[in-house]
């Protein structure tokens, strides 16, 4: 009986012992043409054993890299991709840098800075003004949540102007409540309230007419009985 401790170490256990034995057999073939043909068959078999790799980008390239790792970086075959080296795979990835937010305004978040850049790119008009007002409203919410205190609109306008390097300016608006967005939302709520009022009046009128019909039916029945 042959124990696993007596076998060669699995370089990639997710592929199993069978694929590693096939790779070892491929290395023993005498000609490069034979080795290349068997390597292609092994690649197809590896793809079948790990179908989840097909959803990834350049999965074929990854399979060829895995084949070379299974062969311990010693496989002379024709490959559509360059084989990696031990040094390349052992190299540590570069450290990712965190996005740098501007000074004391980090509580506004990266999304606010992206929206500001987008607003700067827009041509002057209603769309740009609406986006600036949306940015200011979100800045006010972020400020209140982070600092847990009420902030006046002029502070938000000053911060917006500074973050946009003086390219976005809302100082001409007295307050956010007097902006177009506020009036639009209020008008929508008024329309909804008026519609609800109309619906309630319609229901009341229908209920009243139903009650009148029922009362008239009772009177008619009583009069008929009295005549008898």
Model description:
The chain is an all-alpha fold and 228 residues long. The protein is 62% helix and 0% strand. Mean pLDDT is 76; it is low at 181-193.
Question: What does the average pLDDT come to?
Answer: 76
Give the helices and strands as they follow along the chain: HHHHHHHH
Poorly predicted segments: 181-193
Shape: elongated
Spatial gap, N to C terminus: 111 Å
Structure summary, number of beta strands: 0
SSE layout and pairings?
Layout lengths: L15 H13 L3 H18 L9 H12 L15 H5 L19 H12 L4 H22 L5 H11 L16 H48 L1
Task: State the gist of this model.
This protein is mainly α and 228 residues long. It has 8 helices and no strands.
Key attributes of the depicted protein:
single chain, 228 residues, mainly alpha, 8 helices, elongated
């Amino acid at each position: 009986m042959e124990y696993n401790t007596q076998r060669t170490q699995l370089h990639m256990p997710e592929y199993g012992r069978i694929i590693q034995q096939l790779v070892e057999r491929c290395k023993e073939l005498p000609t490069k043409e034979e080795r290349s043909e068997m390597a292609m068959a092994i690649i197809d078999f590896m793809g079948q054993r790990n179908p989840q790799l097909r959803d990834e980008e350049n999965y074929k390239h990854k399979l060829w890299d895995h084949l070379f790792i299974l062969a311990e970086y010693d496989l002379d075959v024709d490959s559509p991709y360059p084989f990696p080296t031990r040094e390349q795979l052992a190299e540590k990835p570069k450290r990712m840098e965190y996005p740098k937010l501007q000074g004391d305004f980090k509580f506004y978040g990266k999304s606010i800075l992206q929206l500001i850049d987008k607003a700067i790119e827009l041509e002057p008009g209603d769309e740009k003004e609406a986006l600036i007002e949306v940015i200011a409203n979100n800045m006010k919410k972020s400020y209140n949540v982070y600092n847990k205190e009420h902030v006046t609109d002029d502070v938000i306008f000053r911060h917006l102007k500074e973050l946009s390097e003086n390219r976005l300016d809302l100082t001409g608006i007295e307050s956010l409540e007097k902006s177009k967005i506020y009036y639009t939302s209020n008008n929508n709520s008024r329309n909804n309230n008026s519609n609800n009022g109309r619906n309630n009046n319609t229901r009341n009128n229908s209920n009243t007419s139903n009650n009148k019909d029922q009362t008239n039916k009772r009177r008619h029945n009583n009069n008929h009985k009295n005549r008898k």
